[in-house]
Write a structure and sequence with these properties.
Length: 214
């Protein structure tokens, strides 16, 4: 397997966690999103992913994009240990928590949105960072309420082992910390993150642990 990744990409971070949890070996191919205007914008990379986004996973003859789709592919091709519960309702719950991050929070604070806020809308650094903190906070408030109110929440987002939801939550918490969003209002999220950080699958996937980290 070959993973096209960038150390600070939270979408790539999700996939790195999933690969580690499943004990799968892969070769990391760094794609720098800032150098030379962004290596992901090159013609060569567009042949891999027309959307010019990381991550991209190559596995044999398959070239896969979109982090959630990649993790679901890993779940189907390497089902142990599972990242989705056996019960259909529980699987839906885990997917819902994952998508709360991947669909409702992350798209509003990723790199291309940051650039547009600055270049097209003329927002200064302070205004742009406030935008990012605002939308992370809105999403975290909803996830905190959901997790805190549900007896299915355990040491992790769902029960006592990491799932797809944790693969998504931990990178978003890292983004929140980079954006200097106070995490005090989210005790359940903080507790789950702390439990995840005790596992090597998560710490080895962290941005600072990547070969392209700066």
């Amino acid at each position: 397997m070959r993973l096209y990744t960038y150390f600070h990409s939270s979408a790539a971070y999700r996939v790195r966690i999933a690969l580690n949890l499943k004990g799968l070996r892969y070769s990391a191919v760094p794609v720098h999103l800032l150098r030379d205007g962004g290596e992901h914008l090159s013609v060569e990379f567009a042949r891999l992913n027309p959307a010019r986004l990381v991550p991209v996973l190559e596995d044999g003859g398959a070239t896969l994009t979109q982090s959630i789709a990649i993790i679901e592919y890993l779940e189907e091709t390497h089902p142990q240990p599972p990242l989705l519960p056996a019960c259909a309702a529980a699987r839906a719950r885990v997917r819902s928590l994952a998508l709360d991050v991947a669909c409702d929070i992350h798209p509003l604070n990723n790199l291309r949105v940051r650039r547009y806020l600055s270049s097209a809308l003329g927002l200064g650094d302070a205004q742009r960072e406030e935008w990012i903190r605002h939308w992370i906070a809105v999403g975290f408030e909803a996830i905190e309420r959901s997790l805190a109110a549900d007896v299915q929440t355990g040491s992790f987002c769902h029960g006592e082992s990491p799932t797809l939801a944790d693969c998504c939550l931990v990178p978003q918490i890292a983004n929140a910390q980079r954006a200097k969003l106070p995490l005090d209002p989210y005790p359940t999220l903080r507790r789950i993150n702390e439990n995840c950080q005790r596992l090597r699958a998560f710490t080895d996937a962290a941005p600072a642990a990547q070969p392209d980290a700066e």
